Amino acid sequence: MLKKIFIPVLLVVLSSGNSFAQQSRTQAMGGLTYSILDRDNHLIPSDLRGNPAWLFVNEKETYLRISPSLGNSWGDYHRKYDSEGTLDASAAFTGIKTLGDLGTFYGFTSYNYENRRDYYRTLKKDTYAGEAFYFTDTTSGNFWYTGPQVQLMYSWPVFPGLYCGGSIYYEVMNGLKERYVYAKTIYRDLRTNFGLAYNIAENFILGASIKYTSSQEAIEGSDVNLMDAEVKNYRGETYYVSSRASSVTDKIQKQGFTVGTQLYWDDGEKTYLSLQCNYNPANTKILKPYKSIADVEEGYSAFEYLDIQFKGQYHVNENFLLGLYAAYYNDNSWSRASLSDLLIWEWKIKRIVGGIGSTYKISPALLVGLEYEYSSANVDSSKYIDKAFSKFTSGDHLVRAGLEYNLHENIFLRLGFNYGKIEHDILNGGNNCMSYKVTGGVGFPLFDLINVNANIQYITLSPGSSANLYRNYLKGSISIELKTF
Amino acid sequence: MKYYKLFALPLFLLLLNSCNENPPVVQEGYAVLKIVAIGDTSLGSQVPQYALLKNAKVILTSEYGSMVKYTDEKGVLTVNGIPSSTYSISIRKTHPSFPNILLVGNLTDQVVTSGKVVVDTIKAAQIANTGIAINEIYSCGPVNSVFFFYDIFFELYNYSDEIKYLDGMMIMRVSGNSAGKGAGADEGDDGDIDGVTYAYKFPGNPGEKNYPFLPNTFKVLAVTAIDHRKTVPSSIDLSHADWEFYNQYSTADFDNQNVPNLINMRPDNHTEFLVGLNSDIIMLSSGVDSNWEDGIDVNTVIDAVEYRGSATIRKTADPRIDKGFVVGPSKYSGKSMQRRELGVDTNNSTLDFEIIPVPTPGRQ
Questions:
Q1: Domain A2-482 is of which CATH architecture?
Q2: A52 and B CB contact within 8 Å
Q3: Is the pLDDT at B333 greater than 60, yes or no?
Q4: CB-facing half-sphere around the CA of A368: CA atoms within 13 A
Q5: CB-based contact, A260 to chain B, within 8 Å
Q6: Does the structure show a pLDDT above 90 at B55?
Q7: CA distance A348 to chain B (A)
Q8: How far apart are CA A218 and CA B114, in angstroms?
Q9: Which residues of chain A lie closer than 8 angstroms to B21, CB-CB?
Q10: Rounded CA gap, B144 and B332, in Å?
C-alpha cells in the first residue's frame, strides 16, 4: 500500500549526491560507498549533502568531464501508473576551474532524454511523489521528456579556515504524450544552495548549508482531432473528478528548503568521521484553472524529511580500510483536499540504517571490498479517503561486493555484485523481494591527459511471491575526464 | 567571533520556514448518509399512500460521478465513508403491484460532510414504466466552421427484460407554444403536452407487433442516415442507423433505401426533423394519442428530455414528462447528451443525463 510514498525519500537521497560526484569507479565496483577510498566519494561535507562551501578545498585540479549515459528498464513488476519500461539517455559535461586564492568554479550541464513506454494514463512527470493526487487521462501511451540541466557553483575562502559557497541549478524539460490526450508538459526546476564551512580546529570542520528548491510542472492536454480532452483529477486512489474541455490544464508547484549541518573530523592519520543532519520541509500544490483568470488550489501536500547520517573510516593499515555507516530517516507527509479542507492522506516512515564494510588490498594490483547494510523501516499510512490503512515494519538486507584489478599501470578492471533482500518493497508493493545487481567497468588513461572510466550495471528486482514477475534495469555510462582545458 | 553568527542564518531560515500549514483537523471518509425511501403506492386515489421501498435502486451523483446502491429490506440505505460533496440522490423502484408503474423520487443539493451524519427521506412518485428510454441525443453538430449540423440522431434503449414493439410510436420535437407556459407544458391543465412542432411515427399502429425492440438493445434514429464524414470529416457515420426520419412531404429530403423510415405526420411541415442545436424538447409517445394539434395526452408519453443552452434558462416542460433539463453542449462542439447509467430513468434529465465528448450511436 505504501508503494507510492517512498519515492520522495529516494528523490532526496538521489538529489543529495551532488551531481559533480560521478562515482563511476565505485559504481563499477558494486556501488561500494563508505569503505573505499575514492576521490569522488570523500567524507567531507561537499559530498555529504552538497554543501558548496567545501568545493574550494575539495577540488584542487582543473578538469573537464564528459559523461554520456544510457539506461533501459523493463518488466512487469511495477506500480499501476508506471511505464512498461523506460529508455533514458543523457550527455553531461562537468567542469572544474581552480582560480587560486580567488576560489574554485564548478559548472555542470547536461541534456537528458527519456522515453517512457506505455506510460499508463498518468500525465504527471513524477506520479509517485508522495502526494495524494493523480492526474490521468484514459489511455496509455509513450511519453517523451527532453531538456537541459545547468548548474553553476562557486566557492572561495573568506579568510583562512572559513569557506563560503553558493550554487544555482536550473532545469527545463518538455514532455509530450504521443496519444490522447496528447499532453504537453513544461517542467522547470530551480534550486539554489548556499553554504559555509569552517575549520574549527586543524582537522575539525563544521559546515552548514541551506538549499531552496522550487519547481513547477504545467500540463496541458488537447485532442488533435478537435474532440474534447477528458481527464481525471484523483483525490486519493479511488475517487476522481472528471473534466472535459477542448483543452485541459493542471499545474503542480513544489517548493521546499533543506537546512543542513555537517561535521567532519579526522585524526590526520587513520580515522575519518563525518556526521550530517538535514531537515527538509516542502510542500506541493495542485492547481486547476478557474474561469481562465486564476489558479485554484485543488490539493495541498506537506512533507517533512529529517535525516541524520554518520560515516566513518578507519585505516587499519595501508591495505585494510574499515568503514561504518549509520543513518536515521524520519519522513512525514499529509495531503488535504483544499476546497473542503479535509485530510485525505497521511503517512510516516521511520528508517534506521546500519552498515559495515571494508576494502582490502590483497596484492598491489587487486583491491576487494565488501559491505553489509541492514535497514529497518517503520511505515504507518492512513489513506482516509480510500479507507486504506496499513502499518508494518520492513527489515531489509543489502550486501555489496566489489573488486578492482590493476591490469597494467593505470589500466583497471572493475567488477561488482549486490544482493538485496527486501521484506516489504514499499516502492513497488511486493513482499520478500530479491534484488541482484551485477556491475562491471574499466578505467584507463589516454595520452596522459585523459582518464576514461566506463561502467555498466544490470539490476533485477522481483517479489518472492512470483518467479515470473520482475523489473530489470540496464545502465551504462562513460566518464571521459580531460585533465586540462 | 562574528563569523559564528553566520551559522545562525540557516537556523533563522529554518524557523521562518517552520510556519508550515497545519494539517486539517477533520479527516475525509467519515461521512454517513442515511436515506429512507418511501413511495406512493396508491392506485386511482388522490391521497398518496406511502410505503417503504425495499431494494430500491439509489443513484448518488456528485462531482465524483455516479454510484448505484440499493436500499435494504426496511427501505433504508446507509452509506458510510463516501467522499464529502454535494449529492443529488435519486431512487427508482417498480411499483410492488403493477410493473408498468415506476416509483421515482429525487433529492438535490444534499451536502454530505465528513464527520457528520445526514439523514433524509425521499418520497417517490408514480411515473409510467414503459421499458423504453431516450438514451442519447446528439444535436449540436460536429466540430466544423461551416455551420454543419445535419448529423443529428436520437438513441432509444429498451431497459426492460422483454421485447417491446415500436409500431405506431411517435417521436416529436416540442418547441412550440411560445406563449403561456411554454414548450412542453400542459397549457390549460387538460392533461395534454402542448407545443408539438414536428411529429414523426414508426410504421403501423400501437399494439401491433411488426417492429420488435429487443431487451437491452439500442435503436438509432437518424435525421439523415448517411455517412456524414464525407461532408465534414469530424462528423459521424449514420448510414447504418436503425431508423431514418423521412419527410414524404418534402421534395428534397434524402432517403436511404437501406434504412426504414419514420414518417412525417404533419403535411404542413416540409422540412427535415431538425431540432435546436443546444435547446429543445424531444418526446417519445406510444402513439395512442396521435392528435398532436390539441396536445399529446400525458399518459401516452413514454419519455421526454428537455435540454437547454444554459442552466439559467427557464424550464418549460411539464414535470410529469421531465422534472429537470439537461444543460446542452455548446453548438458545433461535437458533444452529445447521454444517459449516465443505461436504463436509469428517474424522469429528471438534470440527474439522468451527462455530456459526453463524442457521440456514441448504438452503444453506451
A1: Beta Barrel (2.40)
A2: no
A3: yes
A4: 5
A5: yes
A6: yes
A7: 14
A8: 31
A9: 283, 300, 302
A10: 6
Helix or strand holding residue A10 (H, E): helix A7-16
Is B104:B92 a contact under the CB 8 Å cutoff? yes
Element (H, E) at B352: helix B349-352
B148 three-state secondary structure: coil
Give the Cα separation of A21 and A29 in Å (integer): 15
Q: How far apart (Å, rounded) are the C-alpha atoms in residues A155 and A79?
A: 42
* pLDDT at A107 (0 to 100): 95
- Mean pLDDT is lowest, of A390-394, B150-154, B252-256, for B252-256
Q: Do A257 and B17 touch (CB under 8 A)?
A: yes
Chain B residues within 8 A of A244 when measuring between CB atoms = 335, 355-357
pLDDT at B6: 54
User: Does the domain made of B132-356 have the CATH classification 2.60.40.1260?
Assistant: yes
Residue B17: phi, psi to the nearest 5? -80, -10
Chain A: give the shortest CA distance to residue B53, in Å: 29
Q: How far apart are CA B313 and CA B317, in angstroms?
A: 12
Lowest mean pLDDT among A96-110, A150-164, B14-28, B302-316: B14-28
A467 or B354, greater pLDDT: B354
In chain A, residues with a C-beta closer than 8 Å to the C-beta of B67 are none
Closest Cα in chain B, distance from residue A333 (Å): 10
Domain boundaries, chain B: 31-128, 132-356
What is the number of CB-based contacts under 8 A between chain A and chain B? Answer: 107
Q: Is the dihedral of CA A457, A463, A464, A465 positive or negative?
A: negative
Asked if the model's pLDDT at residue A123 lies above 60, the reply is yes
> With contacts defined as CB-CB under 8 Å, which chain A residues touch B7?
196, 198, 206, 208, 261
Determine the 3-state secondary structure of A131 from DSSP.
coil
CB atoms within 10 A of CB A391: 12
Average pLDDT of chain B, as a whole number = 89
User: How many whole angstroms separate alpha carbon A97 and alpha carbon A106?
Assistant: 6
Is A336's CB within 8 Å of B357's CB?
A: no
In the numeric block, the cell 550530517 is attached to: A276
Predicted local confidence at residue A6, as pLDDT: 40
Tell me the three state secondary structure of residue A476.
Answer: strand
Locate the domains of chain A by residue range. Answer: 2-482
What are the DSSP calls for A319-330, one per residue? Answer: TEEEEEEEEEEE
CB-CB neighbors (< 8 A) of B138 in chain A? none
CB B282 within 8 A of CB B262: no
Cell match 415506476: residue?
B102
Q: Which CATH superfamily is domain B31-128 in?
A: Immunoglobulins (2.60.40.10)
Contact A470, A73 (CB under 8 A): no
CA gyration radius, chain B: 25
Is pLDDT at A345 greater than 60 in this prediction?
Answer: yes
Q: Is the pLDDT of residue A19 over 50?
A: no
Percent of chain B that is helix, strand, coil (3-state, to 5): 10, 40, 55
Q: Residue A347: CB partners within 8 Å, gap ≥ 6?
A: A2, A5, A130, A332, A333, A334, A379, A380, A381, A382
| Count of CB atoms situated within 10 Å of the CB of A430 | 21
Which tens digits make up the pLDDT trace of A64-81? 999 999 999 999 999 999
Pull the grid cell for residue A338: 483544499
User: A434: which strand partners?
Assistant: A421, A462
> What percent of chain A lies above the pLDDT cut of 70?
92
| pLDDT at A47 (0 to 100) | 58
Supply B217's cell numbers: 438493445
- Bridging pattern class, strands A63-74 and A85-98: antiparallel
Per-residue pLDDT, averaged over A222-243, amounts to 84
Q: Average of pLDDT values for B30-41?
A: 95
Local structure of residue B23 (DSSP, 8 states): P
CB distance A336 to B23 below 8 Å: yes
What average pLDDT score do residues B11-35 get? 80
